[in-house]
Amino acid sequence: MKRKFLSLWLAFALCAGHFAWGGVGTAAADASDLSNTLVYAGENEDTLNPILNNHGELPGIIFSGLMKYDAKGAPILDLAENVTYDEKEFTYVFKLRKGVKWHDGTPFTANDVVFTYNILAGDETLTASIKSNYEDIAQASAPNAETVVFKLSRYNAAMPDNFTIGILPEHLLKGQDIATAPFNQRPVGTGRYRFVEWDAAGGTITVERNPDYYGKVPNIERVVYKTVAVESAKALMLQSGEADLAWLNANYAQRFRGDPNFKNIDFVTADFRSVAMDFHTDFWKQNDDSIGVLNYAVDKQAIINGVLNRQGSVAWSPIQLNAFGGDKRADIYAYDLAKFAEEMKALGWTKGSDGIYERDGRKFSFTIQVRDYEEERVDIANIVASQLKAAGVDMQIALVTRFDWRAGYNGFLAGYAVEFDPDGAYSNFVTGASQNNMAYSDPQVDELLKRGRHTSKPDERRKIYGDFEVAYARKPGHLLVAYLDGNYVSASGLSGLDARRVLGHHAVGVMWNIEEWTLAR
Questions:
Q1: CATH number of 271-484: 1.10.10.60, 3.40.1440.10, 3.10.129.10, 3.10.105.10?
Q2: Given a cut of 90, is residue 16 above it in pLDDT?
Q3: How far is CA 197 from each of CA 73, 301, 482, rounded to the nearest angstrom?
Q4: Is pLDDT larger for residue 470 or for residue 128?
Q5: Were 134 and a residue from 65, 121, 200, 349 both cysteine, which residue would form a disulfide, CB within 3.0 to 4.6 Å?
Q6: Which backbone phi and psi does 443 adopt, to 5 degrees?
Q7: Tell me: domain 2-59+191-264+487-495+509-519, CATH 1.10.3210.10, correct?
Q8: What's the 3-state SS for 75-115?
Q9: Start-end ranges of CATH 3.40.190.10 in the chain?
Q10: CA dist., res. 315 & res. 331, Å (int)
Q11: How far is CA 117 from the centre of its chain?
């Protein structure tokens, strides 16, 4: 009965043209047959453009890059069939696959690649979190339709990873503002699935498998992606049969363990939660020396045991679960209220009559914003605030529906991940970098992350990133709390999810091998 209700609901949603943006595959979709349709309860989305949305599931299956990640998170060839690198000239030459077509039937060529990378490396107006990843590209050129040449200004160890970004179609985007183009909600890619429809009113994005895909065509015919903001709603959708797959927080995932109608698939993620301090604000400009000491006042393991149902680990480095991270020299804090009081005294803080520390006539009081629908983050923030208050620090919480970066809050309850090359930390922590939206700055951190990016030998890079972990621990911009496990729950008939891959922020990346998945009703 639940599946029959869902069939009627989806049939309506897929036909609601007056609320929807139609795509190239609209005519081919058959909403009446849900036997091979995967319903995924996912995140809210604003855009499907891979340049602007680099931590969403759908861009990764609609678009494809010159390279892609394998099961171990290593970059391998994708749209390219061959690549050579000239160490002396810092030059990559890619030979492209023959016969690849965009979802609208237009041939894919080297000009599309050059167009995409000229946006990433040359468009000064582009506001994208990944822009700093491409600052070493001096020139991209296409000597012919099947060859792309990248000339770098210097060696960059992370470039193979950066070549995984989805390629955009020049014929559909040339001359348009990439930030506001209608294409962002009606994408055309070369990937395993092609866009059908975005029903904004119904909260669904529909894609169908690409029969002309150059690799293995997926077994599952169609994916209906539900944009769901409230975490509890995802669990209810699974329970009622309205969804086949969802990433849930640890406590919701626990409810499905042992139920034969569902599967729990637990991934390792590099996704951490923290209190990120906003250095645009006067409070942290004046008190940046007092961030690290807060670690002594937070019982992180208690938060993991309670809020995360033991599905996580204590965080002490932003690249702790990266293959190049985890240097124990950076694990310099432990929960120790006596040590906290000692360090606060050394920093010149004294407790006022209300029990809150003061220095230079100013209370140790700051406000962070937390999105109200993210239950797990709200719970983490509340417990951190309670523990800090007991220790003498007043952290106020402002619940918001959307982050407001101009409201003057002193930070937010953040989540980040560096799951692939450790250079993923560059855009977050280097002064002025494209994802450093909290204005964190430290000369030693800058120097180490730049050295790590431009060093070739793995052993040397590992030492550099270990030194970065130590330097960041001594002068942090986040109060790191916990790393989360990636707790997915699926209907029992869904098979093929591969948990070998370390997932990213919000456990993104689960669909990395979706072409191998099967769905039995």
A1: 3.10.105.10
A2: no
A3: 30, 44, 37
A4: 470
A5: 121
A6: -60, -40
A7: no
A8: EEECCEEEEEEECCCCEEEEEECCCCECCCCCECCHHHHHH
A9: 2-59+191-264+487-495+509-519
A10: 9
A11: 21
Residues of the chain with CATH 3.90.76.10: 67-173
Token pair recorded at residue 35: 């036997």
Token pair belonging to 270: 């590099």
What is the model's pLDDT at position 24? 52
pLDDT tens digits for 126-180? 888 999 999 999 999 999 999 999 999 999 999 999 999 999 999 999 999 999 9
* Other CB atoms within 10 A of residue 360 CB: 8
End-to-end CA distance of the chain: 13
Give me 134's structure tokens.
Answer: 């491409």
DSSP-assigned letter for residue 502: P
CATH code for 67-173? 3.90.76.10
Q: Where in the chain is the domain with CATH 3.10.105.10?
A: 271-484
d(CA 382, CA 390): 12
Whether 41 and 226 have beta carbons less than 8 Å apart is answered as: yes
Is the separation of the CB atoms in 488 and 235 below 8 Å?
no
| pTM of the full structure | 0.92
pLDDT in tens, 353-399: 999 999 999 999 999 999 999 999 999 999 999 999 999 999 999 99
**DSSP letter assigned to residue 509:** T
